[in-house]
Amino acid sequence: MPLAFKQGGLLFGAIGTVAICIIYAHCVHLLVSTSHKASKRSKIPSLGFSETAADVFTNGPPRLRPLATFATRYVDVMILIQSYLAFCMYLIFIARTLRDVVINQQQVELDTRIYLLLLLVPVAVITQIRELKYLVPFSGVANAIMIASIGITLYFILREPITLVDRALWGEWSSLPSFISTVIFAIQGIEFILPIENKMQHPQHFTSWCGINNVSIGFLTVLYSVTGFFGYAQFGDQTQGSVTLNLPNNNALAESTRLLSAIAILLSLGLSYYVPMEITWQMIADRVPPKFHNWAQAAIRFNVLLVLVAVAIVAPQIEPFVGLAGSIGGGTLVVIYPVMLDVVFRWSTGDFGLFRWHLVKNFVLFMFGLFVLIVGTYFSVMEIVDSYR
């Protein structure tokens, strides 16, 4: 988030973060609501993201029905791209954190790529966990550790005098798409929404006014806004991809915070791996004899991990890839698809409200998502290219 405020400026960053979080929460409600209505219409207990897209287009206007297969596959591909990009960044963050701590404490300087190779062992174990109910405790511990890390990080950010004299209030026009993409990447996890909501004992608690979605997004909005604003205000142009990398090197508490953050990310990798692996396995499960399913899943999970580690080794930078993952995943999955599915579902009934306000609102959101996808991806790719020149 401090990186986002560095790209967007303090004033635009504060306003933009709140606006993007509201848009995200609304799009989550659209997705869950459409999924519920589609499953009720088709008399199916529950639907995932791509299954919702397939059902909505299959039963939608006749001219759109031939697009059902494409719409389904596109969701799966976008989830895979965004999830794997994010997974690579998590690996790089853990490796860079370990490298910095070892350099500071032991004066042993090894390349980040060495730590990426060393991470293979623990990550290979965590990513072999396939049941969501076993991954949730790991995620719960990771969240607790991360909140503690953010608290300590805020202590270091706020303990020194903060001046706003040379801090940008408004970012460059060329960096605003990267700001939007970075915030969306930080806040979003829409690929996990339906899998988790479908497995809840009381799914109605997810999208109610004081439900899980609104409460969690409200909490994150405040936490991320404070961290982003004061993080950039404190470190300015020196702000790195993760603010923990800006903490002092000669302080034991700061070092422990970096390690805690790395541990939290490590523990959450299993959950990050769950959705893309479910999609990947569904694509190939029918081609594998049932008696080999267990071994095949283990092999696929490990081989995909090897590929992701190889990608991280080739490009061990965090910052340029944050915006790319946010623009690809955020533009398509967070905004475009939820509003598109809502419009297609409503089309047959004409239920667009007074003066067709649902249609107008969704059109505005669709154009915003298209802007994030096209412009955000373009500037993120240019930033990646420039970083390797």
Name its key features.
AA_transpt_TM, L-amino acid transmembrane transporter activity, mainly alpha, 75% helix, 389 residues
Care to give the gist of this entry?
The protein has 389 residues and is mainly α.
Count of distinct strands: 0
What's the story with the biggest beta sheet? Answer: none
How many discrete domains?
A: 1
How much is the radius of gyration in Å? 21 Å
Structural class: mainly alpha
Global mean pLDDT: 85
- What is the approximate shape? globular
Q: What's the order of the H and E elements?
A: HHHHHHHHHHHHHHH
The low-confidence parts are none
Number of discrete helical segments = 15
Please give the alpha-carbon distance between the first and last residues. Answer: 26 Å
Which percent range fits the helix content?
Answer: over 70%
Strand content: under 5%
What is the topology?
Blueprint: H1 2-8, H2 10-42, H3 49-58, H4 68-106, H5 112-118, H6 120-126, H7 132-159, H8 176-187, H9 193-199, H10 204-207, H11 212-235, H12 252-284, H13 293-314, H14 319-347, H15 357-387
Helix pairs in contact: 1-2, 1-8, 1-11, 2-3, 2-8, 2-11, 2-14, 3-4, 3-14, 4-5, 4-12, 4-13, 4-14, 5-13, 7-11, 7-12, 8-14, 8-15, 14-15
Protein name: Proton-coupled amino acid transporter 1
Keywords: Membrane, Transmembrane, Transmembrane helix
GO cellular component, one term: vacuolar membrane
